[in-house]
Amino acid sequence: MFKRVLVFAAHADDELAMAGTIGKFVQEGTEVYIVLMTDGSEGYPEPDMKETIVETRKREAAACDEVLGTAERVFLDEPDMGLQHKKDVVLKCMREIRRFRPDAIFTQGGEDNHPDHRATHRITIDAQWQAGQPVCAELGEPWRTPIVYYY
Fold this sequence. Notes:
By secondary structure, the protein is α/β, with parallel strands linked by helices. Helix content is 37%, strand content 19%. The chain has 4 helices and 5 strands; from the N terminus they run βαβαβαβαβ. The protein has helices spanning 19-27, 53-68, 87-100, 115-131, and strands spanning 4-9, 31-38, 72-78, 104-107, 147-150. The protein has a 5-stranded parallel sheet with strand order 3-2-1-4-5, sandwiched between helices. Helix 3 (87-100) packs across helix 4. The two termini are 18 Å apart.
């Protein structure tokens, strides 16, 4: 159905809500790319994990990519529990949309208890629209992704 899709997620593991869909896409020959917004630095359940959680989450994400067969994962490394809808973050997302040129974008829904999830939704929607406009030429050629799904 799609040649390329781009999945935006606030944290490493949020995209797993779509693991079955991602796996099916890959099996059908669709290239799946993932953009993780935050560094995951606050996602540690034990105090002794604080210093290693970011690298642990990146290793886990790489293992996930191997299992699912995703084409590439991008880490924006914005602050965990502090993701904000700011120009620089929107520009980073625009760059990835223009680089991957997806047929569809998947992002988190706008109604969620976690503020990073809500911010991911708003940032993605704005970046998707702006990426199709003749602005910010240094980010690449404009690309209008016609479909955005919420998960």
